[in-house]
Amino acid sequence: MADESSGPVASRRRALMLGAAGASAIVSIRPALAQTSASVMNCEIPVPDPARAGSYIAADGTLVPAGTPGAYPPPGTAFKAEDVKRALSGGTLPGTDYERSRAYTNYIRRLQSGTSGFTCFASLQMPRG
């Protein structure tokens, strides 16, 4: 009979220990997620990326040769993630008018893996918990 009564007690102890371990994991992961979220909002996206510096940005976000009519010169500085997120939600990028901001955000939406700024942009697309 002693074996039967120690079974449920041992199971409860294991469950409590697992619960405590799980709670400690959550406590240590949450600050890391908060830190990651803060660092994501501080990353920057250059327009265009340094490998294509000198190109202009057309209204649809494609890169075109400098001086192309209707295209916009690069802004000169990279945009912070929080500014990009605001612009993607209908606002404008700092220091730009509506049309120029739209061209730049179209460029950002077209970023591909391996392009400077892609990781920052991709992290903006991740849902936050």
Could you describe the 3D structure shown?
The chain has helices spanning 2-42, 81-88, 98-109, 118-125, and strands spanning 44-45, 56-57, 63-64, 79-80. It has 129 residues and is mostly helical. It has a domain at 44-125. A two-stranded antiparallel sheet has the order 1-4. The chain has a two-stranded antiparallel ribbon with strand order 2-3. Strand 2 (56-57) and strand 3 (63-64) form a beta hairpin. The longest helix is centred in the first third of the chain and has 41 residues, at 2-42. Residues 25-36 have low confidence and may be disordered.
Question: pLDDT under 50 segments (min length 5)?
Answer: 25-36
Query: Order of helices and strands, N to C?
Result: HEEEEHHH
Overall, the morphology is elongated
End-to-end separation in angstroms reads 48 Å
Give the integer mean of the pLDDT values. Answer: 81
Largest sheet: 2 strands, antiparallel
Structural class: mainly alpha
The whole-angstrom Rg is 24 Å
